[in-house]
Amino acid sequence: MHVRKFAAAQAMFERAIRDKMPESYEYRGVLFAKMGRKADAEKDLATLKKLNPKLAGELEQFLKTGREVEEYGGTSPKQNS
Q1: What secondary structure does DSSP assign to 23-75, as a single string?
Q2: Distance from the first to the final alpha carbon of the chain
Q3: Are 30 and 41 in contact (CB under 8 A)?
Q4: Where on the phi/psi map is residue 74: left (φ > 0), alpha (ψ -120 to 50), or beta?
Q5: What is the sign, positive or negative, of the torsion defined by CA atoms of 43, 46, 51, 52?
Q6: Are 66 and 78 in contact (CB under 8 A)?
Q7: How far apart are CA 64 and CA 33, in angstroms?
């Protein structure tokens, strides 16, 4: 019973994030890429293309170049930790 309630709550939370905060897919995609999880980053990119093409373009650019576009017009290099 608790497992079903948890699964339902998780699905509701994921829908809310997807619908109201598409930026979270961009942030997570960058994080996945920095962690070397390119397939997961590509999945977030595919979702983001449907939700917000502008943000998808920014994530796609990061995946190609390893550089993030900063809010104030600069860039930051990919961190290799």
Answers
A1: HHHHHHHHHHHHTT-HHHHHHHHHHHHHH-HHHHHHHHHHHHHS-EEPTTS-E
A2: 42
A3: yes
A4: beta
A5: positive
A6: yes
A7: 10
> pLDDT tens for residues 28-78?
999 999 999 999 999 999 999 998 999 899 999 999 999 876 643 444 444
Buried-exposed string 17-36: b where 16+ CB fall within 10 A, e elsewhere? eeeeebeebbebbbebbbee
- Burial category of 45 from C-beta neighbours within 10 Å (exposed 0-12, middle 13-18, buried 19 and up): buried
Structure token digits, residue 47:
């979702």
Q: Two tokens at 6?
A: 């948890």
Question: Under DSSP, is residue 21 helix (H, G, I), strand (E, B) or coil?
Answer: coil
**Residues sharing a CB contact under 8 Å with residue 62, sequence separation 6 or more, in sequence order:** 29, 30, 33, 68, 69
